[in-house]
Amino acid sequence: MAALLVGAIIWGLLWYPYRLLEQAQIHGAIATAITYVIALLIGLAIFRNHLRKSRIFDGQTHLLFWIGVFAGWANLAYVLGVIHGEIMRVLLLFYLAPLWTILFARLLLNEQLSPHGYLVIALSLIGAMVMLWQPKGGFSLPSSYGDWMGLSAGFMFALSNVLSRKDQYHDIQLKSVAVWVGVALIASGYSLLLRDLPVFDDISPNTYLLLAGVGLIVFFLSLVMQYGLTHVPANQAIVIMLFELVAAAIAAHFLTDEAMTIREWIGGVMIISASLFSARMNRG
Residue 158: pLDDT above 80? Predict the structure, then answer.
């Protein structure tokens, strides 16, 4: 639990250096690719003894592959969401993840749904509808790029978490490497779609240091998160991760001029309540 708590706090603050990199003319997808490549290189150097074929290709390799794919999109979408959207709104949409966790835990882990689970579903959906309600047009789909990124990040995050819990065949190091590879590849692929690539000769030494620092943080964060997700039930893990909202709210208050509407706060409280209830939604 302590590992997830530390990870949640760091995640709640990590949006700020990515915004700084965006202001330094390094697109979020490119910054994500670079920082995760840095994390990957550190991991390969430190965990080279864990990267044996017999450990990777043990009959459950597909789990590593899908953990990398889903974590890859979740992390990239998270970064793009918090860069281009309103921090708290994106994070609250991201924290519809308990709703997705219920479905995936039932399908992939055979975790039985209790009456609390139905309450989670109801609160999550109503909270999202309140946040997305437009006074003139009624309920609408997410209205911005940041909203869609936050929503899709939560969906993929939940799926990746459940698969990490399911994968008891591979150690934390291998699952972390899978995440780094997945994020680096997906972010790099997304970067190829960009029209304006940065000219790295124009980037200041401080920006390079920031990239290296974020890469080091990502390395540490991935290990901490994979340790927590491997040892804590999926539905309980997502509740502990709510501390990310606290850290993000405090940081956003001091570092940005963004403000949420009353409607968004009400919807957000409902989504947070759903996450808290999700800790009790498994029988036995």
Answer: yes
